[in-house]
Amino acid sequence: MRTPLVLGLETSCDETGVGVARGHTVLLSNVLASQERLHRDFGGVVPEIAARAHLEHLVPVVHRALEDAGVELREIDAVAVTAGPGLAGALVVGVAAAKALAVALEKPVVAVNHLEGHIFSVFLEYPEFSPPAVALIVSGGHTLLIHIEEMGKYRILGATVDDAVGEAFDKVARLLGFGFPGGPLIDRASKEGDPQRLRLPRPMRGEGFDFSMAGLKTAVINALQELHDRGARIRRHDVAAAFQEAAVDVMVEKTVAAAREEAAERVLVCGGVAANSRLRDRMEKVCKAEGIELFVPSPKLCTDNGAMIAAAGAFRLEVDGPSPLDFRADSGLLWPFEALVAPTDC
Hints:
five-stranded mixed β-sheet, 11 helices
């Protein structure tokens, strides 16, 4: 049986991504239509605008992805799509399009969890990667530490108790007047700043594997207010550098501590925040010192993209088979992580 050729659609937030993969390790194309300029004036993603933009972008992006991959639509063996988590309206656009394509082609459709997609982005760049490993998934909406016990089997070690890391970057960037999206702007500004000029806390340092970024954001607000009250000069680049250093410290320390506890010899970092240059540099140095093998996708595969959904879809097709045509977009989708989330106290 030949390795399936999968078309992947990603519309969970504000980027329309379409990619083609051969199985879960061979990347053939990865095309992205960004909506950054549409949301910039609002300081964040507007769900209704995002959904409408997906409607406009999806068909031309599919054509471009097929062209880049050098394949015809009729050659596709399956269509994979992000079913959740994400923005409800945006997800509906992708799911409806995937189902329509699958029916028209008489091919299977595969529902994919967006977070599992990020994990599979690593396989597209490092086909040799294999579990067990500890994964740090960091993006605008998610912060998770996961133990990958085997392909497709996950155990959650820690998660954010409030803001996701990427969300905190966006909020601090807005406070400093940098604009949107905050992640790359904070990263760029930090290169010209001195992180030692401002002392900020490292929330939940040494307190297990959960994260808290809301307190760090509040500390930035309080520090700015104190500087203002004293009439002290506020250099935005120093504040950005101090914030980024604090966030990176927490992410690196908790990830490496989790790897030690799980006796994991491999660590992977994925999601949009994994494109942060300081996080990549620090994680590389600390993992090397600890004798841990580090896997981080290139920045183009860190952001939301269709190629990772195609790769995850190829895997899910192999182990679970096609999804039923009546599956729905689910903004709070937990599968295949749902059995790993501890029930809340009543």
